[in-house]
Write a structure and sequence with these properties.
The protein is mainly α and 160 residues long. The chain has 7 helices and no strands. The relative contact order is 0.05.
């Protein structure tokens, strides 16, 4: 018993495209590719009917992939936002400890962003306490000593 010939998809597409071009007759195409003319007509009809879905499916597939990617990215953003809020509530440090956590190395987030993440006002990061001069410290110490020895000089007379 003779088996039917099996043609691969590329061969079918090639024959169908040749017939769509209308440069030769169906009989000529059929004899060149050694297939029946009815088979050439069937493949031509099939490619003409299914070509709109080929383009639609490709676009739909790309759109659905993009939609899935966007949904996943939004999910990750939401998760990171929740984790950041939780971290800011749990991070109970002094201002000095938060200042110490900020990293100014290249490649790390900006100081502004790090301050926002830590819940630290940027002015607090840059704040440098005023340093008293040794002379002022000496005068303040002498005034304190004098006041402790004679506290009554600090009281103003009400009789004048």
């Amino acid at each position: 018993m003779a088996r039917r010939k099996q043609y691969d998809n590329r061969f079918k597409a090639q024959v169908a495209i040749e017939s769509i071009k209308n440069q030769r007759t169906m009989a000529q195409i059929a004899s060149d590719y050694e297939v029946h003319p009815n088979q050439v007509s069937q493949w031509k009809r099939q490619i003409l009917e299914e070509s709109p879905q080929l383009f639609a499916n490709g676009h739909t597939q790309a759109t659905s992939d993009n939609d899935r990617l966007i949904a996943e990215l939004y999910r990750q953003i939401g998760q990171l936002k929740v984790e950041l809020d939780w971290l800011q509530k749990k991070l109970d440090c002094s201002v000095e400890q938060k200042r110490w956590l900020i990293n100014q190395e290249r490649g790390s987030p900006s100081v502004l962003r790090q301050c926002e993440l830590l819940g630290l006002p940027r002015a607090s990061y840059y704040y440098q306490p005023a340093v008293e001069s040794p002379e002022s410290l000496l005068y303040m110490r002498l005034i304190d000593e004098q006041y402790t020895k004679t506290p009554f000089y600090g009281v103003a007379r009400m009789t004048d």
